[in-house]
Amino acid sequence: MRRPVTLVALALSTGLVCSACGTGLHAQTYQEVGRQDGANTDVGSLAVRNLAVTGPDTGSTIPIDGTASLTGLFANSGETPDALVSASSDVASTVSFTDSGKPVTRIEVPARGASTATWVISLTGLKKPLAAGSYLDVTLTFAKAPRTMVKVPVRAGNNGLSERTPAQDPYKQG
């Protein structure tokens, strides 16, 4: 009598143990994450990729009245050119564009192409400090594509690790 009970218990426990083997394949927390830590969205035929605020020069916060610089890429899969014509955020007093360090009124996105990698959206006169790791809402207005709001992350800035000597590096080999 004891043997059948043991076999049934063993069969049930083996089923329970084996049923957990596949949980990681479709787990709710599983999500592919790219190498870049910027915001990505599609707006009509435009793709906004890796939009993020450059981290603070020192410390972990961009201060009130400071300037936040957004960078990223705009790609156009459509047959007609487009352009970013304005941007806004409730955390900034003014927003301006530069390309290769020169002021511009729009960021061009050619048909079947991408914007240059040299543009910057400057949010000046910050109304609150922006901490590394936080997010801010930025509204992007294009000439042709629909207006969109993007949650943009603030990247980590200079954490001092680049200034350490080799003797201070815990990962230095040999």
Task: Summarize this structure briefly.
The protein is mainly beta and 174 residues long.
Q: What is the rounded distance between the termini? A: 65 Å
Q: What's the CATH first level of the domain at 39-156?
A: Mainly Beta
The 3D shape can be described as extended
In what range is the share of β-strand residues? 35-45%
Number of E-state strands: 13
Spell out the CATH superfamily of the domain at 39-156.
Answer: PCu(A)C copper chaperone
H and E order: HEEEEEEEEEEEEE
Please give the radius of gyration in angstroms: 25 Å
What is the mean predicted local confidence, pLDDT? 83
* Broad structural category: mainly beta
Q: What does this molecule look like?
A:
- The protein is mainly β.
- The chain has a domain at 39-156: PCu(A)C copper chaperone (Immunoglobulin-like, Sandwich), CATH 2.60.40.1890.
- Helices cover 10% and strands 39% of the residues.
- It is built from one helix and 13 strands; from the N terminus they run H-E-E-E-E-E-E-E-E-E-E-E-E-E.
- The protein has one helix at residues 2-19; strands spanning 39-43, 46-53, 61-62, 67-76, 82-88, 94-99, 102-104, 107-109, 113-114, 119-124, 130-131, 135-142, 148-153.
- Strands 1, 2, 4, 6, 7, 9 and 10 form a seven-stranded antiparallel sheet that branches. The protein has a four-stranded antiparallel sheet with strand order 8-5-12-13, with no helix packed on it. A two-stranded antiparallel ribbon has the order 3-11.
- The model has no long low-confidence stretch (mean pLDDT 83).
